[in-house]
Amino acid sequence: MTVIDVQKNPEALTLTLTARFDAPPARVWQVWEDPRKLERWWGPPTYPATVVDHELKPGGAVTYFMTGPEGDKHHGWWRIRSVEAPYGLEFEDGFADDAGRPNPDMPTMSVRVRLAADGETSTVMTVESTFPTAEAMEQLVSMGMVEGITAAMGQIDALLADSAA
Amino acid sequence: MTRREIVALTLTGDHSVSELARRFPMSFAAVQKHVAVLERAGLVIKERQGREQRVRGNADALSEVHRLLDQLAAVWQGRIDRIGEILADPDPEDGKEQAHDRDRRPEEP
């Protein structure tokens, strides 16, 4: 379970991450296909995700919300462009309003996932995220980042509390 | 990649599209197209000076994009670690996939 490569391509507004897992593609695919598994990794521990709709087929929707430490909910959605189980998935990833409806004023990013067998028992997974504009990227990453920063702040608080004790 | 080169070049000073076309082995139209994509992305700024369109790299936007890509990479690192944990977990809820794997897997030494 290692990230083996991170490619930043600022001119194309694209990030490509490559990771290797000690499991065959069919098993890695489960973390995308099974909504209960998806919930366990999409959001960080401080902002766990709850998947509401999960229709992995072209034109299908995945909707979810993440619940923050204050009970605050952040809704998001995917619009599935293509699925090739267990080797790939492409979707549009966006944020939704408090009722879970896609927010038309918010930009979206494109995500392309590829799973390839690496020998008999391993999988190389590539995730490519592309943004339409630098401004869209700013909006999307900063919104998606709220939970990450809050998590980091929580850890800092814990460290400060420890050292004070 | 030409777009990267266009950004790099225009960060050192502004250039007209025709100057860029002379620097790269491609047509004026092709360079113009790359510039349009970069402008839409917010990475270069086009300004009219007299009869010419000058192109300059948007250094602030580029450093911001680098910062955001780093942040997004951190988010995905976390996700990939959690996926690794799920896969390491011999979860009975893996259901038929797990059973299937077990059936196929040779005896462990």
From TrEMBL, chain A:
InterPro entries: ASHA1/2-like_C, START-like_dom_sf. Residues 22-160 form the Activator of Hsp90 ATPase homologue 1/2-like C-terminal domain. It comes from the Bacteria. Pfam families: AHSA1 (PF08327). Gene3D superfamilies: 3.30.530.20. SUPFAM superfamilies: Bet v1-like. Belongs to the AHA1 family. This is SRPBCC domain-containing protein.
